[in-house]
Design brief:
single chain; 440 residues; alpha+beta; Heat Shock Protein 90; five-stranded mixed sheet; disordered C terminus
Length: 440
């Protein structure tokens, strides 16, 4: 593409943005400001332009009316289509200059004051809507037109062409700079939003991977028990028929294969360079120790277990682990956001499910939070994922006294249970906590 073709395209092809300035503002009166300003400019320049062209430049009244209507009316069009408005205004300026050639020497020519103001207002609309090459092409046309008036109509030269060239260039440059700054801020805001979304997504994936690694220990324990029982059945049970021995062997082989597949999956989920955790997963029996740790951080926490919890029977390891992690995160939030506050952890039955509630009061006095209230809230992600994994429900929110409450209901039916509920990592049942126990 030649320079000439590129220049013509810049003057004829608009950017394509049809919305007026401030169209994205939330308040209606702010969106109406451009229309009010353009309407006021038209209302002032239209009658003034007609009078000035007729009285001071001797233009025919009919032609003066048409020129004034075009030169001021394009400001309303320029709100949505500034380049088209400029294309309509340029011929009107040329026609007006030709019609006012016989003006008195003391009158401005070829830019009457009303035409000059309309042109500069239109430059503002162009600068905040069109691309840089279009603005440069518009200024070049303005400069060439003013230069032509200097040379061809030198007897009328009074300096207005220099003023138009300088002011239009300054307005276009300033508007282009402000528009570029606005675009940069918009792109930065979009990148920040994308980064925030990516951080939230990455946090969610990391939390899911951590939950998978923890549940691996729970499930692996029960699969190991199945394997050992199936392998030792022919030796522990006398008189088994060969078919039963073969069946137990197939069960043991399937269990070992499942364990191998699960370990391979865990290798994918495990972060690079992180060593496997060989400590037993915590459960309900570890809650008193957890509350004691919170007490060392300045939060006095009490554990209350209602009578009906013992009637639920053995709590599956996955439920016990999830309950422990929910309480752990809730108490950590109390330490971070309400240091010195008191907290209560309550376990209760709920129609075949384990219900737990962590409630804390407001911090005493004016104790400053360890973290501001405007945190990311990513700690709730882990709670929701664990509760969702067990098909349970989670409810969080502030209390009337200025504290905070975290309530979760964890169904017991369908959760993985082992043959021996008292064995293995995280196998904590109601037997580990006496009803009515209170731990500070």
């Amino acid at each position: 593409m030649t320079i000439r073709e590129d220049f013509l395209r810049a003057l004829t092809e608009p950017l394509g943005v049809r919305r007026p300035p401030l169209a994205t503002a939330r308040r209606a009166w702010i969106r109406a400001v451009p229309y009010l300003l353009a309407g006021a400019a038209v209302g002032a320049l239209l009658p003034t332009g007609i009078v000035a062209l007729i009285r001071f430049h001797g233009v025919d009244p009919s032609l003066a009316t048409v020129l004034a209507v075009v030169q001021s009316g394009v400001l309303l069009l320029g709100l949505t289509r500034p380049l088209l408005a400029w294309q309509l205004m340029v011929p009107s300026v040329l026609v007006g200059a030709a019609a006012a050639q016989g003006t008195a020497a003391e009158q401005p020519w070829p830019w009457p004051i009303t035409t000059l103001l309309s042109y500069l207002f239109l430059m503002v609309l162009l600068a905040i809507r069109e691309r840089g090459r279009t603005l440069l092409a518009v200024w070049v046309v303005t400069f060439l037109g003013c230069s032509l008036s200097w040379t061809v109509f030198n007897q009328h030269f009074d300096g207005t062409s220099v003023v138009v060239t300088a002011l239009s260039g300054a307005v276009l440059l300033l508007g282009w700079s402000l528009r570029g700054r606005g675009e940069a801020k918009r792109l930065l805001a979009e990148q920040e939003q994308i980064s925030g979304t990516e951080r939230a997504r990455r946090t969610l994936l990391e939390e899911r991977a951590r939950i998978a690694r923890e549940l691996h220990d729970v499930v692996a324990h029960h699969m190991s028990v199945i394997t050992v029982q199936a392998d030792s059945a022919p030796y522990r049970i006398a008189g088994l028929p060969p078919a039963a021995v073969e069946e137990f062997g197939q069960i043991a082989a399937a269990a070992r294969g499942s364990l191998a597949e699960m370990r391979r999956l865990l290798g994918v989920l495990r972060a690079d360079g992180s060593a496997p955790d060989k400590t037993p997963q915590p459960g309900l029996a570890d809650l008193p120790k957890l509350l004691a740790t919170a007490g060392q951080a300045g939060v006095r926490a009490e554990l209350a277990v209602e009578e009906g919890v013992s009637a639920l029977g053995p709590v599956p390891d996955a439920v016990a682990l999830s309950a422990y992690r929910v309480v752990q995160e809730a108490l950590a939030n109390v330490v971070r956001h309400a240091p010195g506050a008191t907290a209560e952890v309550r376990l209760s039955p709920a129609d075949g499910a384990l219900a737990l509630t962590v409630r804390n009061g407001p911090p005493p006095g004016r104790a400053a939070a360890v973290e501001s209230s405007g945190g990311t809230g990513q700690g709730l992600v882990g709670m929701r994922e664990r509760v969702r994994l067990l098909a349970g429900t989670l409810d969080t929110g502030p209390t009337a006294d200025g504290g905070y409450r975290v309530s979760a209901v964890l169904p017991l039916h369908g959760a993985a249970t082992g043959t021996d509920p008292g064995a293995g990592p995280g196998a904590d049942t109601d037997a580990g906590i006496d009803p009515g126990e209170s731990t500070a």
